[in-house]
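Journal club prep — side note

Before the paper discussion, L.F. wants everyone to see what a predicted structure for a comparable chain looks like in token form. Sequence:
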Amino acid sequence: MAATPPDASTPPDPRQAFLEVLRFRYACKDFDEGKRVPRGDLEYILEAPSSLGLEPWRFVVVEDHALRRHLRPACWNQVQIVSSSAVIVILALKAELAPETGYARAMLRRLLHADDELGEAMEIYHQIVHGDVLGWSVAQCHIAAANMMTAAAVIGIDTCPMGGFEPEAVADVLKIDRARFAIALLLAVGYRAQPQPPKHRLPLSQLVDYR
């Protein structure tokens, strides 16, 4: 008896689809230098949600190849800086995130119009940052990077998060105001030149403790 073909009207299992995205994603070290990521795809990748809608980051997208060659020595000479299509430099806001500066209040005001709701949100913000505004800001940037890497994988684009760089040297090359920003992470974006290597992961039984 012939097998029954799948019902085309049945939507795919979203859990399986998401697992496929995760299986596609890896820290690509070998990019195809001849393939460029379209600007529209870059903008899709850059749409990252933030805690309380504060968007405590700014992004510098370095596409110019000559500038990336100049940037490479500041990034431990890693080849991904020049072989990728672009490098996204994720900047964490610093002093202006302090609750007393007004930045957080202005950003929250976009979402909350009642004064009592805004006051409650500001109290929550005070508790979240715990006096370590920069630490919170950098952590938010890393969450943004994770979302960006997943978004890139959804549309078949490879990424490589890069923590190996000299912040002062990167800031000098890109003329970044270090009084205003901390460089949280670099994210190389492009297309793999070689097949993905095998993945090796511990079983959940060794990683998870259910209580």
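L.F.'s comment for the group: The domain at 25-98+131-194 is CATH 3.40.109.10 (NADH Oxidase). Keep this in mind when we get to the figures.
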